[in-house]
Amino acid sequence: PAEGIIDQPVGRDPRERKRMAVTSHGGKPPRTRWKVLERFGPATLVEARLETGRTHQIRVHLAALRHPVVGDPLYGGRVRKSLSLRPAERSLADALLRALARQALHATVL
């Protein structure tokens, strides 16, 4: 879809304490509104607006949707899930990951 709201609870990952995760119990109630701004083959520019401010909220919510932030090593954005991509998109995805030393998450306003 081109936009949506994610309101799944976020809490400590029970298997890996340094991570946060969408939890079925014990999490705090967050809310993230998101909208696709532009698509670039294997990557998409998304605007995310937080209605709450939980630790790693954007990263956790996008990963829960199976669309992690590009370059995010903690929540799956560095994993090369390129088997379903066409060769040109696979090449672009690999180049993006090689070029990024960090996650592609940027704020216009804090």
What's the short version?
With 110 residues, this protein is of the alpha+beta class. The protein contains two helices and five strands; from the N terminus they run βββββαα.
Oligomeric status: single chain
* SS content category: alpha+beta
Strand order of the largest sheet: 1-4-5
Radius of gyration: 14 Å
Contiguous helical run count:
2
pLDDT average, as an integer?
88
The largest pleated sheet is described as: 3 strands, antiparallel
Query: Using DSSP, what is the number of strands?
Result: 5
The helical percent reads: 10-25%
The first-to-last residue Cα distance is 27 Å
3D architecture notes:
- This protein is of the alpha+beta class.
- About 20% of the residues lie in helices and about 25% in strands.
- The chain has two helices and five strands; from the N terminus they run E-E-E-E-E-H-H.
- It has a three-stranded antiparallel β-sheet, with helices on one face. It has a two-stranded antiparallel ribbon with strand order 2-3.
Task: Give the arrangement of secondary structure elements.
Layout: E1 3-6, E2 10-12, E3 20-22, E4 32-40, E5 43-50, H1 57-64, H2 87-99
Antiparallel strand pairs: 1-4, 2-3, 4-5
Summary tags:
three-stranded antiparallel β-sheet; 110 residues; single chain
